[in-house]
Amino acid sequence: MAFIPQGNSDGASSPRIPGVNRLLTKVEMRLSxxxxxxxxxxSKSDPLVVVMIYxxxxxxxxEVDRTERIKNNQNPTFTKGxxxxxxxxxxxxxxxxxYDIDNNTKDLRDDDFLGETECTVGQLVSAKKITKxxxxxxxKPAKKGTITIDTEEVAENHDVLVLSFRASxxxxxxxMGKSDPFLEFYKQGTTSEDWHxxxxxxxxxxxxxxxxxxxxxxxxxxxxxxxxxxxxxMCFDHDEGSANDLIGEFYTSARQLxxxxxxxxxxxxxxxxxxxxxxxxxxxxKVFLTSCEVKRHYTFLDFILGGCQINFTVGIDxxxxxxxxQEATSLHFISDSAPNEYTQAIVGVGEVIQDYDSDKLFxxxxxxxxxxxxxxxxxxxxxxxxxxxxFCSGVAGVVAAYQACLRQVTLxxxxxxxxxxxxxxxxxxxxxxxxKASQYFILLLLTDGVLTDMYETRDAIVRASHLPMSIIIVxxxxxxxxxxxxxxxxxxxxxxxxxxxxxxxxxxxxxxxDFKGADPAELARCVLAxxxxxxxxxxxxxxxHPPVLHR
Length: 551
Hints:
This protein has twelve helices and 26 strands. It is an alpha+beta fold.
């Protein structure tokens, strides 16, 4: 079984304190804002909050997570909570930065800054709920803008509730039709007035008797392990382009939901305003829970500790646009004074992943070069030139094979990566056929330019999204990587040329220039941040359990 390194939140080794067992606690922060500045001319701002923690070793701010973007809202309440580690013995400075997001990229430089605030995690934990004014970069107030942070410890409960809801005789809200109902789930916060949205169903068009698809909601997300925590479920009529109309609401708890099992239970859907006005008011319809199934949600560590191996493959761009390796201006130039960007990326990512692969033998492939002995162009060759055994021993072996390969190939082109994606997908497909969570594949692609086989690459990624596989793409050099960002399907819009949507997001793209001069570990933290979630999502999608559960 692979050794899993233990460390603190900034990736450095935790100091060992004699006689003390270091316990890891996580906290979840729920965020909302009031009176944000309006930066849009034709509409209101589309805010998002970026949460960063100060790394005491590097003296830099590092992003922990960010909320979802909420459109046209100066007083947003964000659904997505931000979870981070909490260490009592450390001063953990945290920053909350609010932006008006105008595009679908992760780069915030083109977005309007709405203000920020700083504090420590200790302050948030002790206060539980705190409201702070937002300030601009020059320290001046961001007008009347404030941010409220509601913090609670995360309960280690990975169960998931599969909830099936329907409704009958809902109020008609549309003039030209019936209603377009959907449900929103809220858990109670630190006071009776605080409610945090944790889930939303799909909208059912033009009906007063909707049947919603079964919804999977984690117990931790729903009630943080407190089964008696009050829950509010609100039924709305969806209106495109304007505020949704409240049909009604009711209250319950996770315990009541779970105790129902396969027995149907019902609630009156009450509209408070209508109830206050009408003496004979009964309800605005009824909502029924037809079934509640409790499923175990297996985590990334469940799979790793259960024996799942992470298989790491490297794909390296040997196209001519990198420049002559003999010249100091080349991206492939080998210097005694400092490693090039290719080497830094291989080391930064590889040193994290290698701990999860027991044999530490990694296939390393190249593309876009003329290779010996026939000087033929290849877009899928072993950089050790042993097609039957392309494995390198550890990260150091990959680096050594890469440097040796540079002396034997002629850099050429074009930049085609679909063959290497399909190569790894072939092995991932064999693991899929075993129908057990024993292997997961990661492909690290390093390239300096725009892909010339974008159609084929999109098709290969969509097919790979159905396999136990993730792809990390690192853009080396100063090229325009605009098209490359399209492959990073965070917005769920990646499709193959024939229109087939990716089953899940499996690509993470970053330009290396964003990490120039930083510790390679910073690059690794960024590109590997989504990997545990991708592993969990894949095996959950396939309803596959860990091979051996860790006890």
